[in-house]
Amino acid sequence: MKRIGLIGGTSYESTLTYYDVINKEGIRAMGTGANPEIVLFSANQEMCYGNLAAGRVDEAAEYMAMAARTLEQAGAELILFCANTTHMVAPQVQQQIGVPIIHIVDAVADAIKEKGIDKAALLGTPLTMRLPFYRDILEDKYGIDTMVPAEKYYERMMAIIQGELDCGVIKEDSRNFFLDVIDSCKAAGAEGAILGCTEIPLLVKQEHCDIPVFDTATIHARYAVKMAMK
């Protein structure tokens, strides 16, 4: 099995999910009692999302490229960004390293196709919902019609992600708010909901929803194991 490199820390809470899922899935896939080799770069979130939110895309890309090069030098044979929004600079980073970045949208699209869904809602940080980098891949590469929630929800969504979920705080009223957002998307025709921030699945689970929800952290981690076994 190839050695997996993780750029985590964005946030550390969802990075725990990646480490847990990759180990469990890797042990099961190898079937020998061995566990996967993982190299982790725990990134400074302000240097990643903070720069992106401030419009300093080149600075964020260079920081992520530095992290990716560090992992490559440590022997990583494939690399994952443990966050959705940071994938907006994945093309720039890929140009600077010699090992593949396993893109989260490819993994998510594979899971959506498996469910036979044609139209999905994308929930995430305001950057992920507003910018086309995520939706363009889903729509142009995979033919998945992608919608986003109404703009009025964005401020509170981000406040919950940064102020609560990034710190491991789970509140029932915050869960109900996200479920209301998903219901609004369902009413607008969404057949499923992409939890397109790797912290949202800490709050919203499939048992809370009556349409399929896609836990991007778990899906990405499992997909990486499949790629690493090839």
Write structural notes for this entry.
Helix 1 packs parallel to helix 10 and helix 5 packs across helix 10. It is globular and about 45 Å long. The protein is of the alpha/beta class. The protein folds into two domains: 4-103 and 219-228, Rossmann fold, CATH 3.40.50; 104-215, Rossmann fold, CATH 3.40.50.1860. A four-stranded parallel sheet has the order 5-4-6-7, with helices on both faces. The chain starts with a strand and ends with a helix. Helices cover 50% and strands 13% of the residues. The model has no long low-confidence stretch (mean pLDDT 95). The chain has helices at residues 12-30, 45-53, 57-73, 90-94, 104-115, 126-130, 133-141, 154-163, 172-187, 216-228, and strands at 4-8, 38-42, 78-81, 119-123, 145-147, 192-195, 213-215. It contains ten helices and seven strands.
Features of the shown structure:
4-stranded parallel beta sheet, 50% helix, alpha/beta, 2 domains, 230 residues, 7 strands, 3-stranded parallel beta sheet, Rossmann fold, 10 helices
Which helices and strands, and how do they pair?
Blueprint: E1 4-8, H1 12-30, E2 38-42, H2 45-53, H3 57-73, E3 78-81, H4 90-94, H5 104-115, E4 119-123, H6 126-130, H7 133-141, E5 145-147, H8 154-163, H9 172-187, E6 192-195, E7 213-215, H10 216-228
Parallel strand pairs: 1-2, 1-3, 4-5, 4-6, 6-7
Helix pairs in contact: 1-10, 2-3, 5-10
Quick overview:
By secondary structure, the chain is an alpha/beta fold.
CATH topology of the largest domain: Rossmann fold
The rounded distance between the terminal residues' Cα atoms is: 8 Å
Which word captures the global form? globular
| Assigned CATH architecture of the largest domain | 3-Layer(aba) Sandwich
Assigned CATH class of the largest domain = Alpha Beta
Largest sheet: 4 strands, parallel
| Count of DSSP H/I helices | 10
Q: Radius of gyration, rounded? A: 17 Å
Per DSSP E runs of 2 or more residues, the count of β-strands stands at: 7
Q: How many individual domains? A: 2
- Indicate the proportion of strand residues: 5-15%
Give the strand order, joined by hyphens, for the main sheet: 5-4-6-7
Instruction: Give the low-pLDDT segments.
Output: none
Order of helices and strands: EHEHHEHHEHHEHHEEH
Mean pLDDT: 95
> Helicity, in percent?
40-55%
Structural category: alpha/beta
